[in-house]
């Protein structure tokens, strides 16, 4: 069956007892054991709950993996997956991972004796060159945040396989609708379901899917042992969001494409990052490994002053940390998602002070463009910016 069908029938199975049209919320922390010698499938809700299980089955099916897991947040999923590694292990990590992932790796995991090397994963050979005798894993995010660099997933997974490494992919930006890393050779896929999968800016959640059962058993042991599970009410909200994932992304992606092309032609914009633009360096790989370009784009207006002026003037998008929602969201990576990253690291990754990220929602695209137009048309001139700032932003 095709995605549009599977996305619905994985999440709205009838409750066999009542015929209810959505999965019931089993608001129960423990389950009666009628026979001590033959315990039921569920015993204690950290270990398993039917509502959570329904969501875990749904995401595993959509990603094409054996086992799914629902966590309290994207970061809970990410940190739990990293618990598969041990002291002394080394992991090669894409340099422009989510800011919270960067913070967790450099400030928490480093204290546990697990070391990482950040590389530009869009350069496949840089990943190979970073492998050490103690390397056990490769961690990727593609397209990356916020400059949308594309990693060749098949090529990097091949390197992983040759070296016996666990390849983990954060698939938050594209979701299984557009990209299924397990089919390209990855071992684990992670989501911040707070974003497109939940889709309504009303729930914080994380998901993970393993390619095989053995790895699934290991991750289950960690999920149960660490306990960062998603509560049942939030599991239900994520399933509610998941049902409209395709419908929402079809519209939001079309909107992002139109806005990206429009921004590219606007004189106040110095650069647009969107994998759907033919001149994006990752365009061809993206077309080969994903079925869409997604709803997130970034653009540079040249300076912090001009970015601030734009944020002050736009009326429709909400200005917020986050992405992947029904409403268009504008964010300022230098001070929001990547605030945890030291300034010089940010500069190296192209996260300039003029960079703005846009996640397209479901508003009318012409209304959004009119709003962006009135804001961009009235920005202070680029020439008025301090020369050093200008040089920096255009570098
Ligand atoms: C938001 C985000 C995360 C973290 O997820 P939370 O649900 O906020 O904990 C991880 N990766 C990416 C790409 C994200 O956008």
Care to describe what's here?
One of its GO terms (cellular component) is cytoplasm. By secondary structure, this protein is α/β, with parallel strands linked by helices. It has 2 domains: 3-243, 3-Layer(aba) Sandwich (Aspartate Aminotransferase, domain 2), CATH 3.40.640.10; 245-389, Aspartate Aminotransferase, domain 1, CATH 3.90.1150. The chain contains 15 helices and 12 strands. The chain has a 7-stranded mixed β-sheet, with helices on both faces. Strand 2 (90-94), helix 4 and strand 3 (115-119) form a beta-alpha-beta unit. Helix 2 runs parallel beside helix 9 (232-243) and helix 12 packs across helix 14 (365-377). The longest helix is centred in the middle third of the chain and has 20 residues, at 245-264. The chain is globular and about 80 Å long. Bound molecules: pyridoxal-5'-phosphate (PLP). Pyridoxal-5'-phosphate binds next to helix 3 and helix 4.
Features:
395 residues, alpha/beta, Aspartate Aminotransferase, domain 2, Aspartate Aminotransferase, domain 1, 7-stranded mixed beta sheet, 5-stranded mixed beta sheet, 15 helices, 12 strands, 38% helix, 14% strand, binds pyridoxal-5'-phosphate, pyridoxal phosphate, pyridoxal phosphate binding, cysteine-S-conjugate beta-lyase activity
Straight-line N-to-C gap: 47 Å
Q: Which blocks of ≥5 consecutive residues have pLDDT under 50?
A: 386-395
Q: What is the annotated CATH architecture of the largest domain?
A: 3-Layer(aba) Sandwich
- CATH class identity of the largest domain: Alpha Beta
Could you say which structural class the secondary elements and strand pairing correspond to?
A: alpha/beta
Q: Total number of β-strand segments?
A: 12
Which of globular, elongated, flat, extended, rod-shaped describes the shape?
Answer: globular
Q: What average pLDDT do the residues reach?
A: 94
> What are the distinct ligands in this entry?
pyridoxal-5'-phosphate
Rg, Å, rounded:
21 Å
- CATH overall fold name of the largest domain: Aspartate Aminotransferase, domain 2
Number of domains: 2
* Helix and strand element order: HHEHEHEHEHEHEEHHHEHEHEEHEHH
Main sheet makeup: 7 strands, mixed
* Fourth-level CATH superfamily of the largest domain: Type I PLP-dependent aspartate aminotransferase-like (Major domain)
Percentage of residues in strands: 5-15%
Arrangement of strands in the largest sheet: 1-7-6-5-4-2-3
Count of alpha/pi helices: 15
Helix content: 25-40%
């Amino acid at each position: 069956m095709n995605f549009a069908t599977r996305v619905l029938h994985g999440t709205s199975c009838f409750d066999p007892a009542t015929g209810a049209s959505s999965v019931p919320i089993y608001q129960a922390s423990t389950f009666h054991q009628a026979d001590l010698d033959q315990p039921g499938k569920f015993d204690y809700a950290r270990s398993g709950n039917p509502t959570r299980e329904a969501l875990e089955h749904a995401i595993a099916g959509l990603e094409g993996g054996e086992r799914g897991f629902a966590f309290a947040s994207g970061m809970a999923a990410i940190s739990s997956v990293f618990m598969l590694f041990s002291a002394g292990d080394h992991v090669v990590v894409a340099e422009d991972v989510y800011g919270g992932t960067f913070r967790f790796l450099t400030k928490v995991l480093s204290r546990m004796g697990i070391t990482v090397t950040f590389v530009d994963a869009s350069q496949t050979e840089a990943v190979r060159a970073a492998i050490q005798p103690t390397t056990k894993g490769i961690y990727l995010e593609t397209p990356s945040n916020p400059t949308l660099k594309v990693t060749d997933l098949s090529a990097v997974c091949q390197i992983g396989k040759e070296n016996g490494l666990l390849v983990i992919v954060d698939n938050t930006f594209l979701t299984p609708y557009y990209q299924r890393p397990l089919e390209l050779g990855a071992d684990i896929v992670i989501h911040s379901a707070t974003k497109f999968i939940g889709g309504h800016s009303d729930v914080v959640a994380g998901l993970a899917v393993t390619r095989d059962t053995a790895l699934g058993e290991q991750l289950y042991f960690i999920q149960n042992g660490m306990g960062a599970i998603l509560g049942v009410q939030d599991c239900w909200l994520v399933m509610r969001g998941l049902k409209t994932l395709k419908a929402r992304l079809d519209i939001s992606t079309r909107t992002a494409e139109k806005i990206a092309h429009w921004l590219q032609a606007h004189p106040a914009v110095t650069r647009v990052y969107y994998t759907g633009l033919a001149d994006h360096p990752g365009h061809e790989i993206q077309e080969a490994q994903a079925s869409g370009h997604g709803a997130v784009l970034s653009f540079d207006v040249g300076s912090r002053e001009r970015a601030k002026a734009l944020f002050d003037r736009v009326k429709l998008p909400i200005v917020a940390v986050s992405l992947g929602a029904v409403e268009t969201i504008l964010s300022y990576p230098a001070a929001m998602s990547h605030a945890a990253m030291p300034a010089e690291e940010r500069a190296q990754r192209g996260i300039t002070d003029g960079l703005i990220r846009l996640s397209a929602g479901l508003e009318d695209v012409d209304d959004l463009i009119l709003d962006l137009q009135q804001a961009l048309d009235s920005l202070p001139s680029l020439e008025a910016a301090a020369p050093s700032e200008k040089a920096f932003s255009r570098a």
